[in-house]
Amino acid sequence: MGRIPCCEKENVKRGQWTPEEDNKLSSYIAQHGTRNWRLIPKNAGLQRCGKSCRLRWTNYLRPDLKHGQFSQAEEETIMKLHAVVGNRWSLIAAQLPGRTDNDVKNHWNTKLKKKLTGMGIDPVTHKSFSHLMAEIATTLGPPQVANLTEAALGCFKDEMLHLLTKKRIDFQLQPTTSQGNNMNPTYIMNTKPEAKEDYVEKIKLGLSKAIQQPDHMMMSNNPWEHNVGIAATSAQVNPFSGFQYGHSAFGAEEDGSPWNQSMCSTAGDQLGHLKLEDENGEESQGGKDTRNGNNIFSTDSLLWDLPSDHDLMNPIV
DNA sequence: AAGAAGTTCAACCGCTCAGTG
DNA sequence: GCACTGAGCGGTTGAACTTCT
Fold first, then answer.
1. Which CATH number belongs to the domain containing residue A56 in this structure?
2. Does the pTM exceed 0.70?
């Protein structure tokens, strides 16, 4: 049995909405509300699918929507929430008044993903590439490490070189001293064009050397320490270590909140670790239960069920 | 100036889930 | 418990726009 189409495909207009159509839809909804999307286009005199009307309304016409650029605070919120819930765009959008899931999804795919990658953070796991490499190195046997490392370095190299050469994203290679901790330095963006070529060359050199010497990877939990840092100490040249959302890259202060990097993970898997309380104080696990519970991130309703050292995202284990 | 390449974002598609009879 | 329906979600597409060569 085939799936029943949501509307008649014939006589249904598709593509960009005209101002006239927008007006018809807006004025109809202002008078009658949004009950029964299937009937709305018919009653409003639109040759559109109900689904298309719903999308147009929720993503564009709703009067409470923001249409401008995402603010820095909004971007930071998206990144933090994505680290926990993953591609649950509707959940993330629910925490950003005036933004839709489509807005958030588009912004993530076009801007934030690249921003994170450019900072040496894997946008899927929200861990630094060095962290992921270390996990690989500690989990697998030597032959697998060599092969995987080579493959991974190839990917990272391509991505990094693309970003460094095509985008004005750059790294200040001196770790900030505010932490007084070179084991976990914080890097900030350097937009000076003259610094770029030198860094690109250093990275190219370090990466190609690393690929040629996979054995060194096995000697450390952090392969970058042995290979990437060829032109300087690893802490100075390795742009992939010690990223912190709360610091200079986004201008906010770290607050010791549950958002710190240790609990970042692939998100879809993580909803199962969140305890959610509904209005009656009853617990429910994440997932579908959260569909109508838009305020699960409020401090009043969210209970964290995570030991601080719990490694939620080990892709190998 | 013009074509190519890259980017953005509105819109569509197909799927899942909740509600209902 | 089952079938059906509507709503909502996330992934993908493609037209419009921008930047690069």
1. 1.10.10.60
2. no
